[in-house]
Amino acid sequence: MILKTEEEVREFEVLTYFIVPSIVVLILLFIFYRLFKLVQIKYADKYSKPIFNHVYLLKKELAPNHRLILQQEHSFYNKLSKKNQVYFEHRVNVFINNKEFIGKQELIVTEYMKVLIAATATMLTFGFKKYTLDLINKVIIYPESYYSQINDTYHKGETNPKLKTIVFSWKDFLHGYKIGNDNLNLGIHEFGHAIHLNATSSNDISSYIFNRGFKNLISYLQNNEEVRKELIASKYFRAYAFTNHFEFFAVLLENFVETPENFKFQFPQLYKYMQDMLNFKFAGY
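Structure for Zinc-dependent peptidase, as requested:
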């Protein structure tokens, strides 16, 4: 074919030198992405963790007053290596800046409240690659237990995925936070619900690991009647755990974080499932 005009020549050059190479690059990128997803899943199946966990284009430094609160108040943070503390601070910063904190009944939300709540969420998702809990946009804080017209009762906390909100009674959050070995921790419990619900509606690698691990945990209990009986007889987990699967995980999470040695000693296989689901392999766990 003979090109007759300069315009046809230019069109041919654009097609040859720009459009075709661009299409080839896009196809190669898509193939690479699909291969990486496949490799990532295979790696997660074998090791119960993402290939990369802490990859940040720009790490955000925590404000000095926020860091001081962590150093003085958060034992988990202080058990981390210096490198992991930097990652932890970055994630706390992201949580504080990405979520809206709302005080109710004339409660004034302080920086102290923000840091303790953000640190709880960061601790529980520290093993996740995608850690932002997109299920939640707002953190609502009441001074103490509050009345709910929905079910005509008083609440200490709740997680509402429809409103993308997590709610705490500050009095009860702080009580659970300060007493670290009674397996009653409102912050851990409610963020446990948020993590569980977030994973059921997400397809990132950490959600995949969580969902697969939870399925294995439930299957293990269903196939081992003696373990189920032992769980109930031991009274190590409070009775509320047996309300449904969501409460079961949230209560197990409280025990896992607050009394890990007892958990591991009494129910080592359950402990392993929890550790794998959360990729919780740091700070002595």
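The first helix runs from residue 6 to 47.
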